[in-house]
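Section 4.2 – Deliverable D4.2 (structural model, holo form)

The reporting period included a commitment to supply a predicted holo structure for the target in complex with magnesium ion. Inputs used:
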Amino acid sequence: MSSEYKATIGLEIHAELKTETKMFCNSKNDPDEKKPNANICPVCMGHPGTLPVINKEAVKSVLKVGLALQGNLADYTEFDRKNYFYPDIPKGYQISQYKYPLVSGGELNGVKLTRIHLEEDTALSKHKGNYSLIDFNRAGVPLMELVTEPVITSAKQAAAFAKELQLTLRYMNVADANMEKGEMRVEANVSVSKDSKLGTKTEIKNLNSFKIAEKAIEYEIERQTGILEAGEKVVQETRGWDENKQETFSQRQKEGSSDYRYFPDPDLPKLKLSEIKEFGSIGLANEIPDLPSEKRELYRETGIKAEDVEVFVQSPFLGELFLSAVKAGASPPITANYITSDLIGLMGGNIKEQKFKFSIKSFFELLRMLSKGEIGSRAGKDILKIMYEEGGAPKSIAKEKGLYQQNDMTELRALAEKIISENDSVINDYKSGQGSALQFLIGQAMKETKGSANPQVISEIFTDLLK
Ligand code: ADP
Ligand code: MG
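Output (structure tokens):
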């Protein structure tokens, strides 16, 4: 495919906030509620005569995200009615923000943000053949919408942005943002163009995973490029992703914002945020934890491998374990290696927080024994496995299983002499300059000591004896 055309992508990402209650009423906000229509009330069901009340926690969450992403927090803000008819929207309008979003501007992963605003989620429709059911548990759940500028240039970059946003929301504890649960939903606007003027865009909806988002954007870039190269025009429309066919398909021609007849909701107060104490940016800033980017920098500074850095950024639980071990004096590369390959292996690849049978102190002790060369790397792995499966302290395990490094020189020398006397042909190979012969001898010694000898020391002994 010709590379003459360059892609431009802008993302619109919705995330359900994990507040106790819904956006404008006291109904519980529980995405895990399995019973349909359990968490509803006259307000979120849109009964006439009811009045909405703004959920402060939701406003605060969005302001905190805005502050963390270096956006401008609004001083004046209001909520608008976005009018449209659909069975999942009980009032006949969705309360959203139009002219005065809570946050304007900002940046994440080098991508400029347009805005972040707050709205209410719709109910969930379940289509069953010739009829549909509606679950209103989700109706009125606080929903944050983040819009980026059209500045993303590849499908990969778009997916990376969405992943970093998910992680950031989780670090901040404002959203769980599981895409497969619909707690975070990504819409991608895609266009291609030969020059600096942006082309006609399409908007792809229903992207339920990072992988699907990436594939759908990739597909859409190629599709549009094909259309333009054939001298035809891209139609501005909303498209969906067909997972079976692995292609996007036309859903509907996009409605303009004028179709929604936005107007300020007369039932809700306008907010002058500087006059509301708990929304002051100093107080909010104190509630923002270290962000993924800051943690990434911290891990990087310890000099560990880039892949290990990313594991710790993705798993704050293991990241904290790593940092506390290093703080306790353990070697960063050894610690990183034991966590990312051995411990995660024992955890079955699941990097989520879990309770270990061993104490953190025991883990530090194991790393200290390794760093000091008291035990070899093989023994370290075996001890960690026992600690993981049965608990226990590394010193007693090492003693019990005879895993302490044997660095008794006289003993090792005697062993080396014995091995030399039993392997005439290998010794001849060694003398005729075959490098692999020495490896074989070291291997024999490691076997005899059950891996507890230091291979470097053994190697020196052999070289010395065979001089
Ligand atoms: P609309 O009015 O159609 O909703 P907006 O201007 O509100 O469009 O932008 C919605 C999203 O589409 C934003 O993320 C924006 O960055 C992106 N976008 C706008 N124009 C383009 C374009 N030509 N190509 C790709 N993305 C675009
Ligand atoms: Mg728009």
